[in-house]
Amino acid sequence: MSTNEHAAPVLELTDLSVSFSTRQGLIRAVDGLSLSVGRGEVHGIVGESGSGKSVAMYSLLGLTRDANASITGSVRFEGREILGSGDKAMQPIRGGEIGMIFQDPMTALTPVYTVGWQIVEQIRQHTDLTKAQAKARAIELLGEVGIPDAKRRVDSYPHEFSGGMRQRVVIAMAMSCNPKLLIADEPTTALDVTTQAQILDLMSRLRDVHNSSIVIITHDMGVIAEMADRVTVMYAGRPIEAGPELDVVRHPRHPYTWGLLGAVPRIGERSERLATIAGNVMSPLDVPVGCAFAPRCAYVMDECAARPPWSDGDHRSACWLSDTQRVALRRKES
Ligand SMILES: Nc1ncnc2c1ncn2[C@@H]1O[C@H](COP(=O)(O)OP(=O)(O)OP(=O)(O)O)[C@@H](O)[C@H]1O
Ligand SMILES: [Mg+2]
User: What range defines the domain where residue 92 resides?
Assistant: First the structure.
């Protein structure tokens, strides 16, 4: 397992913010997200529905098309700034150097072409392989992701596969060019536990064989515990805790993360979607100016009316509780 110290980061987000001006008001979907992913490193992003995980991913890839979107901050891929660089510059990167697995596998597959055709097109866009070579590679990839009888199934249409199979096809496509970075948005949420495990294994193999970096977006702390080297916890568009996976899972600092982990029966075991934490899910239109989690936090104090700054160090959080208060509260809880 590699860590950040070894090499320049493959992906570096600095203060990424995405807001949408809507008729109802301004929605700050992503608000000051910074993170750094080293080579061969798996970075997990976790947070409940609506916390801005997918918007962050689309925006960093230049796929947020909404005319009412305002995107600021910096996205560096292999040291190069790519935020706002436009389709022409991004096309060789998307699907080539950066593999993508979107939340809904059907959005990645066109219903009117066979899966083989789609993988071949993707490979040919990013390599010099001939059609025949690309087809052979497509069959090989489908075999690798566990599609039985790949030689025949390569000519099937997406609707002829089950949901789990389609997700495998999407993963085959995302891995077809041995990406330096794989961004996977809830790659296993819709799948049964056995298929989930196989898909996570496949992604780990991509990292092990090609030293690819992975950003994995999930609701599931079990997936984080199994896959991630580092983790960022998001709440209402903001990062609220980040650090090495073991530190965050064993010594969570933010009350929101305590709740998330409370939702996992045992660390390392895969759970269903996050259990509900008391209080309503935040309306994106009225996120408080201070700590976004304050309205749902059991430990809210006067200080929480102001936005808490990031703490220092490798394991950071944005919460006004002092270390002494935190330790006392955790002891009381357990
Ligand atoms: N084009 C848009 N215009 C206005 N609001 C948007 C737009 N796209 C996303 N949002 C809002 O941004 C917020 C973050 O959405 P996002 O899809 O990133 O959540 P998520 O963390 O991926 O949730 P989930 O876990 O359900 O996939 C949501 O409140 C969503 O409604
Ligand atoms: Mg999402």
Answer: 11-97+177-333
CA 29–ligand 1 middle distance (angstroms): 6
Residue 140 lies in a domain: no
The pLDDT assigned to 268 comes to 41
CB 229 within 8 A of CB 3: yes
pTM: 0.90
Q: What b-and-e string marks burial along 231-253, b requiring 16 or more CB atoms within 10 Å of the CB? A: bbbbbbbbbbbbbbbebbbeebb
Query: Is 120 inside any structural domain?
Result: no
Total count of domains within the chain: 1
- What amino acid occupies position 261? L
Q: Which residues line ligand 1 (CB under 6 A)?
A: 20, 22, 27, 29, 47, 49-55, 66, 103, 219, 284
- Cβ atoms of 34 and 15 within 8 Å: the answer is yes
Residues of the chain with pLDDT under 50: 1-5, 264-275
Q: Which atom of ligand 1 is nearest to the CA of 47?
A: 21
Distance (Å) from CA 18 to ligand 2 centroid: 14
Assign residue 312 the CATH number of its domain: 3.40.50.300
Residue located nearest, by CA, to atom 4 of ligand 1:
20
- Pick the residue whose CA is nearest to atom 27 on ligand 1: 49
Does some domain include residue 133? Answer: no
User: Is 269 inside any structural domain?
Assistant: yes
